[in-house]
Amino acid sequence: MNKFMATFSQTYLSKVRAKSFMISTLIIVLLIFIGANFDKIIGIFDSSEELTTIKVESDEAFMTQFEAIMNALESDIDVVENDGEIGAAEALLTIDGTEPLSFTLAADQEIPGDQMNDIEMALGELQRTNTIQALNLSPEEAERLNTPPEITYDIASGPEEAEVDEAATPEEEMFETNMLNTIIFYVTVIVMFFIIINYASQIGTEVAMEKTSRVIEMIVSSVPPVTHLLAKISAMILVSLTQLGIFLIAIVIAIQLFDFSDIISDFGLESDDQTLTMIVYSVIYLILGLVLYLSISALLGSFISRMEDLQQALLPVTMFSLIGFYIAIFNVWGSADNMLVKISSYFPLFTPFVMPLRAINEDTSQITLLIGVAILIVSIILAIWLAASIYRNSVLSTSSGIFKNLKRIRKE
Fold this sequence. Notes:
Blueprint: H1 2-16, H2 19-36, H3 38-45, E1 53-57, H4 60-72, E2 78-81, E3 90-98, E4 101-107, H5 113-134, H6 139-144, H7 170-173, H8 179-212, H9 216-219, H10 225-257, H11 261-267, H12 275-301, H13 310-331, H14 339-344, H15 351-360, H16 366-394, H17 402-411
Parallel strand pairs: 1-2, 1-3
Antiparallel strand pairs: 3-4
Helix pairs in contact: 1-10, 2-10, 4-5, 8-10, 8-12, 8-13, 8-15, 10-12, 10-16, 12-13, 12-15, 12-16, 13-15, 15-16
């Protein structure tokens, strides 16, 4: 145990004290705090000042209608009658024509985009009301203007799908995703991908460098090869989790220090019944995914005896992580439970990327998600066992080339 801890602590401390670790961690933490103040940063560069008052030059009936619609939009702009003067943060609305309605909005400053949208929506509703009155439409006829078309889909399908209601609208059949859950998914997959790419290379280099420099000859004289490798793998896993923990702490601090109400309201972020499940399984799959890929990187690093072969050996890690990443990202806005997603979610190297996507869908059962966890745990145990066996048999090998090492290990 002492030999394991000696190698473990030496590897862990050397990595967390490295300048690359500190700089990369600091950059991500800064980006987290910048993102938490994104709306304020935009406000600094946005020279437009919000309107407080719109003065209307028209009859009282029009002004009453306009004011009612602006209040319905929950706008913070006051609507008053024109008094002949336009002050700071004020605008003048005049009617140029009645059939159809045309307006002129005059202001001494640039109007912010969100306020402009409210004004345009209110004037559009006034135009619609004016058109209904001009055409003398009844309330029933006016209501028909907003009625969506009913579409019946006559599409060839299997016997089970034929029982689905054919008059269902596209909005009812489309898989709807909660925006907050989608953001949690994106953060999980993107962070996992970049940490895997970063630390897979590091652990592979760590294992290969010792073998190529022949330092391992002195190490194995005092530490068993398997103990040494497991200590290396454990240390690199803890380094990656340390960096991930720092990111999570930075997010918690940002949430406590800064007001996110404006961002939440702008993007419509609201939790639902799947949010807690999404968070729990995202964290589980993120940790297990990192452990699996780092274990496989150590396994592949055990094959080589020359640094020139390192990139070739680690190519499967890059390739499979990239494929899993793209499968997850490109299916989040489509059907999150299609055949490709279902099949790939049970393939161990794709599971940590794809299973969080399936967790978004409330139809995905807990058993399915737990099966994914079990697949990863079994795969991690198998990868570490293979890495230890191969490292023990090839630790002192001088054979050049991955395939030569494979043939020699298979014979042994």
